[in-house]
Amino acid sequence: MSGLQGLAQENIWFDKSRYDEAERRFYEGMNGIPQTSQVKTALQGSKGHTRTQKPRERKTSQNASKSEDQSELVSRLKSLELDNKNLHKVVDDLRATLSKLESRMATLEKSQSPASKTVTFTKAAPVQTPKVEEHNGADDDDDIDLFGSDEEDEEAERIKAERVKEYSQRKAKKPALIAKSSILLDVKPWDDETDMSKLEECVRSIQMDGLLWGASKLVPVGYGIKKLQINCVVEDDKVGTDILEEEITKFEDYVQSVDIAAFNKI
């Protein structure tokens, strides 16, 4: 009894769910929402309607699936027919090539058969064995000269001397290579009043063994002064650059200095 008395003294709201349901219905009526009983009847009616519609939808879907399957089968059959035609063409081509090869082989066999008949086999000639002559041992000993003869040595020395003489004559006939160089000289005058034609005449008057003068031209230096640029070819063993410079600078009335502008081996 003490437990029941304790529960009676506590403040517990046993009917809260009923009050919540009444409050919900009140607000639904205020907002225009249909009650649950009405919703249930509407749902039941809609379920019956949908049940009547489902068999129709199923039938239409089945028909559509059947038509799709039939179209797929038709397309596959068409593709198979095309493949079959292509395979027939390939087989026909292979048969044609095989027949051509057989005809070629037959013609080759026919052409080779008479050639094989006409082939003749030549017998190998018997090998002739050289005849060995028998000599007595005494004769062989007489033919061998152990010490040699002086006449053979003299003949070998004579042949050697003739060969050396021929080689020296051939070597003397060959022209020796001469080392040459091409030199470009710059000959400068004293001033612009120097007679450049006379200066060139003086330079070309130098004559040496192994010296050959070439083309020349006047090159302006500045302030109206021109220098003589002249080319020459020299043999290295006979003419040197120092000798050329000394010979040209001897013409002191016309030449101030000589420079080598270019030096090339030929």
Report the span from N to C terminus. 145 Å
Helix content: 55-70%
Percent strand equals 15-25%
How many individual β-strands?
4
- For the biggest β-sheet, the strand order reads 2-3-1-4
Oligomeric status: single chain
The largest sheet is: 4 strands, antiparallel
Number of helices: 7
State the shape.
Answer: elongated
Low-pLDDT segments, ≥5 res: 117-124
Counting helices, strands and paired strands, the structural category is alpha+beta
Estimate the mean pLDDT confidence. 77
Order of helices and strands: HHHHHEHEEHE
The radius of gyration computed from the alpha-carbon positions, rounded to a whole number of angstroms, is 66 Å
How is this structure best summarized?
The protein is of the alpha+beta class and 266 residues long.
Helix-strand layout with pairing:
Elements: H1 2-9, H2 16-31, H3 36-118, H4 137-143, H5 150-173, E1 180-189, H6 196-204, E2 211-222, E3 225-235, H7 241-249, E4 255-265
Antiparallel strand pairs: 1-3, 1-4, 2-3
Summarize the structure in words.
The relative contact order is 0.06. The chain is built from seven helices and four strands; from the N terminus they run αααααβαββαβ. Helix content is 59%, strand content 17%. Strand 2 and strand 3 form a beta hairpin. It is elongated. About 3% of the residues have low confidence. The protein is α+β, with helices and mostly antiparallel strands and 266 residues long. It starts with a helix and ends with a strand.
